[in-house]
Design brief:
The complex is a heterodimer of chains A (about 55) and B (about 350). Chain A contains no helices and six strands. Chain A has strands at about 1-5, 10-15, 25, 30-40, 40-45, 50. The chains are: A mainly beta (about 55), B alpha/beta (about 350).
Chain lengths: ~55, ~350
């Protein structure tokens, strides 16, 4: 399974057993990527970690 | 069995449940969950427990106590007002509704859902969570706290409270000796300076020491002057509360310091089966997910280090309304969060825990 990095457009081979919601690192640009679809394989930039006051 | 999510939350808000006075609400919730087909009871700590399914445990842990402050329960412009609407009756009501939908669907999930309506989270004793931490051994846990319907909370800062007392024989203010008030203020200034130095180069609030002067006062009986203060410090993950307490003890200016409510920070992993299920759940409900780190504390700080399983906090609501006089939840968001929870729990059932 191959998908395109949305950050650098590198072609990434998804490991066997990859599932939706998994977070991967692009081997070319090191961007953190979320697997948003398996069929067809599709990657998006992983959610940023924001900060928030409170509980 | 029918369940009106808004009616459930209204009823929960109408039953006051300030910390250590949660019994009426706990029994109401146990009865409501029994009506929905859950195995339910109030445990020895006073927690309202609801259980459905079979298999390894997945814990949905929310707190049912609130801070004081009565807010008339009402709906205005699509917002439901009431003490605890976001912190955290709304999130726990969402847990019940999502679990009830899964139960009603007759879908067989490969885990046992354990809903824990915990007591005394706001009292800092965290009695309910501490009891549950020893009682259960889940493979995953969702903490019910307001993250917003499309956000997932991964961590909470730690906390340390310091009570300081300075006493000395009363003297004339024209004398050369520092007053007790000055000694107390000097201690606060050193705490603030220590935190500021620690925070150099640390951009994220989550990585910083955040001090706050909670109270300070002086008094005198004509013979002895006395100054008292209370300081709270929010801690990053790399500073255990005991370590900070030892450091601060060296700067007491002759005062007597008491350290309490020591609670280490906790940060969960984001690449877990549980987080994946929630990412999918939020996207399935039409959202773009995000992760949060919070400056406050929650029951995640208590059960996270014990259970050491995939964990996150999730729930509808704007946490800036926690403890606020206008605390309310947007009904549309509350309903959306139930949808996300239902999706996420269903996804969780399909994901291998690798």
């Amino acid at each position: 399974m191959r998908a395109i990095c949305p950050e650098c457009e590198a072609e990434i081979t998804l490991p066997e057993g990859t599932i939706e919601g998994e977070i991967l690192t692009c081997p070319d640009c090191a961007a953190e990527l979320e697997v948003v679809s398996i069929n067809p394989p599709e990657l998006a930039l992983a959610p940023e970690v924001e900060e928030d006051w409170g509980e | 069995m029918t369940l009106d999510p808004v009616a459930l939350l209204i009823r929960m808000l109408e039953i006051p449940s300030v910390s250590m006075h949660e019994a009426e609400l706990a029994h109401f919730l146990a009865a409501e969950m029994a009506r929905l087909g859950f195995e339910s009871f109030v445990d020895e700590a006073g927690n309202a427990i609801g259980i459905i399914g079979a298999g390894p445990d997945v814990a949905l842990l929310g707190h049912i106590d609130t801070v004081p402050g009565e807010i008339p329960v009402r709906i205005e412009n699509g917002n439901l007002y009431g003490r605890g609407a976001v912190d955290a009756k709304g999130p726990f009501a969402a847990f019940i509704c999502a679990a009830a939908r899964l139960a009603a669907s007759k879908e067989r999930l490969p885990f046992r859902l354990v809903l824990i309506g915990a007591v005394e989270e706001e009292a800092a004793s965290s009695k309910g969570a501490r009891y549950a931490a020893e009682r259960y051994h889940p493979i995953a846990c969702v903490i019910g706290e307001p993250s917003g319907w499309d956000r997932i909370t991964l961590g909470y800062k730690g906390r340390l409270l310091v009570d300081g007392v300075w006493e000395q024989p009363m003297s004339h203010s024209a004398g050369r000796e520092a007053s007790v008030a000055e000694r107390a203020v000097a201690f606060w200034n050193e705490v603030a300076a220590h935190c500021e130095a620690h925070n150099q180069g640390r951009e994220r609030l989550f990585d910083q020491l955040l001090p706050s002067l909670r109270s300070i006062c002086t008094r005198s009986d004509g013979l002895t002057d006395r100054a008292e203060l209370t300081i709270g410090v929010r801690l990053p993950p790399d500073i255990p509360p005991e370590t900070l307490a030892s450091t601060l003890a060296e700067h007491s200016h002759g005062g007597v310091l008491r350290f309490r409510d020591l609670c280490p920070a906790y940060q969960a992993e984001k690449n877990t089966p549980l987080a994946r299920a929630f990412l999918r759940g939020i996207r399935a409900a039409g959202g773009t997910p995000g992760f949060l780190l919070k400056t406050g504390t929650s029951d995640m700080n208590i059960v996270g280090p014990v259970w050491r399983c995939p964990i996150l906090a999730y729930g509808p609501g704007d946490s800036s309304l926690d403890h606020a006089p206008n605390e309310h939840i947007v009904i549309e968001e509350y309903l959306r969060a139930i949808e996300v929870l239902e999706h996420a729990l269903r996804h969780l059932g399909s994901i291998p825990f690798k």
